[in-house]
Design brief:
8 strands; four-stranded antiparallel sheet; elongated; mainly beta; 2 helices
Length: 155
């Protein structure tokens, strides 16, 4: 029962993570609808205050993109940084947990950000990748945030 409630809390936190758009650049002019672009968004880690992840990814424009029918490319890049004093929200941090996910096609395709804990090196590792119901993409990006003198909470 304890694991079930922890899983439900984790799902609620993933659902609560919202991106702040930092900026965007156009990569291709589209006559009708929005241009294709690369967007940069910031995600604050919901369980680790003081850590923000910046994700850049392609966003498809045109009419299909404007109405949500386009499928965005699987490529994404991530850079997570300490942006303030690091503090853990809660008394435990699982060894691996999805921090965020966002739909990048009408059905079946998501961009995901996963936090992994490297206890041996006292580092938080963040991985971004996309998956699809049938065939996900192996394209991924990884970054790490060293914790210095901050002690990881128990699992």
């Amino acid at each position: 029962m304890k694991k079930l409630s922890a899983a439900l809390i984790s799902l609620a936190l993933v659902a609560c993570v919202r991106a702040d758009e930092v900026g965007e650049v156009s990569t291709a002019f589209i006559l009708i609808g929005a241009n294709h672009k690369v967007v940069v968004e910031a995600y604050d880690d919901p369980k680790v205050s003081g850590v923000t992840c910046y994700v850049s990814r392609a966003k498809t424009g045109g009419v299909r993109g404007a109405i949500g029918l386009a499928e965005d490319k699987a490529e994404a890049s991530i850079a997570c940084r300490q942006v303030g004093p690091i503090a853990f929200k809660g008394s435990s941090l699982p060894p691996q947990e999805e921090m965020f996910n966002e739909r990048i096609s009408l059905l079946f395709k998501k961009l995901r950000v996963v936090r992994m804990v490297d206890r041996k090196r006292n580092v938080l590792v963040y991985l971004t990748y996309s998956d699809r119901l049938i065939d996900g993409s192996p394209q991924n990006s990884v970054t790490a945030v060293p914790l210095g003198q901050v002690t990881l909470p128990a699992y």
